[in-house]
Design brief:
With 364 residues, the protein is of the alpha/beta class. It folds into two domains: 2-172 and 347-361, Rossmann fold (3-Layer(aba) Sandwich); 183-334, Rossmann fold (3-Layer(aba) Sandwich), CATH 3.40.50. Helix content is 44%, strand content 16%.
Length: 364
């Protein structure tokens, strides 16, 4: 019996691993799949609710590391996970995405001689001021299986000298989760509860340090969201980090009554909110992918993206961090100047099945 340990720590990780947990059930006689939750996201709305909605099994291990600086959090995960790996001696460790839990687990496993599989490998923003970029690069260097979501990931890994035998273009497990829950997304009543007209409102999310940790930048964002809320109802589910800074910077006065601020929503609620939006404005990576799959116009408020397929093929508009440009692009979209999009290759709900098959073929 082979033992595989998947390590999750933040909202996007749960979404990417849930389909894999399901896919490995087919091989339950040959493989024992274990789940370790690092506790990197410890807010209930940002963590446990996703286990419930994604129908994921309860974690076999919960490290409970909580917050802290990047160094503190990464170090605590490494220390606690090392104990689990010594105890369980898995044959493979699977790490999704690009958060601190991803990096920490990949480092510990590789130093212990345990093969590592990286789900969502090869993505690059080419911006090393982003902690996620460092996490991606280092994780890919030490990984033995690199599971790629889009063609740019293949090119990046090859440019970095990774051997083709380690690279597998499999599709996107985040889209697997969306596809598997599509009926629940379409039937969710969140728009009715919020009094929204489908196709006639905007959704906004911001959480990246460059946008929300600087008072001037966050003030400009709130001003622009306030202006757009004068054109359409605008729903702003507020990340804990963003809410903390709105208070700390005294920006509550910049919130007009037409701007609907909510607590972070559950997975299905938020997907449904995006599904029926006219426009989504964000600095998130995963949301660029989800809106592309759903055919919803998306404005990404960043200077770069590690997911270029969402621009080249999908509905994503990368506009930089100028709020003037964000406002202009948003008004163009509200006036009907939209870009057509299509679903990228292999974003078909079967990525996890492909990953499980590849791992089983190489299980020795």
């Amino acid at each position: 019996m082979k033992k595989i340990l998947s390590v999750v720590g933040a909202r996007p990780n749960f979404i990417k691993i849930a389909p894999l947990a399901k896919a490995f059930k087919k091989y339950r006689k040959e493989v024992k799949h274990l789940l370790c939750h690092t506790g990197q996201h410890f807010d209930k709305r940002m963590s446990e609710i996703f286990f419930d909605e994604l129908k994921m099994p309860e974690p076999d291990f919960n490290l409970g590391v909580g917050g802290g600086s990047h160094a503190e959090q990464t170090a605590r995960i490494m220390l606690e996970l090392e104990k689990v790996l010594h105890q369980e001696k898995p044959h493979l460790v699977i790490v999704p995405g690009d958060v601190n839990s991803t990096l920490a687990a990949a480092l510990v496993a590789s130093k212990m001689g345990i093969p590592v599989a990286h789900v969502e490998a090869g993505l690059r923003s080419f911006d090393k001021t982003m902690p996620e970029e460092i996490n991606r690069i280092v994780t890919d260097v030490v990984s033995d299986f690199l599971f790629v979501t889009e063609h740019s990931g293949m090119h990046n890994l090859r440019d970095e000298g990774v051997d083709d035998s380690k690279i597998f273009f499999v599709g996107n497990t985040m889209i697997d989760s969306l596809d598997a829950n599509w009926d629940a997304v379409e039937s969710n009543t969140v728009t009715d509860r919020m009094g929204l007209t489908k196709g006639k409102y905007i959704v906004a999310t911001f959480h990246r340090p460059t946008n929300v940790d600087d008072r001037e930048n966050l003030a400009e964002i709130m001003d622009t969201m306030g202006k757009l809320a004068g054109e359409r109802k605008l729903v702003f589910p507020v990340h804990p980090r963003t809410r903390k800074n709105i208070r700390a910077f005294g920006l509550e006065k910049k919130i007009p009554g037409s701007l609907i601020l909510t607590e972070p929503l559950g997975y299905l609620e938020f997907l449904s909110l995006m599904r029926y939006a006219e426009l989504v404005i964000t600095d998130s990576g995963g949301i660029q992918e989800e809106t592309t799959y759903m055919g919803v116009q998306c404005i990404t408020v960043r200077k770069n993206t590690e997911r270029p397929v969402t621009i080249d093929v999908g509905t994503n508009h990368l506009v930089g961090v100028s709020m003037e440009k964000v406002e202009k692009t948003a008004m163009d979209i509200l006036d009907g100047i939209t870009k057509p999009g299509r679903i990228p290759e292999l974003w078909d709900g079967k990525a996890a099945k492909r990953i499980a098959e590849i791992i089983m073929q190489h299980k020795e």
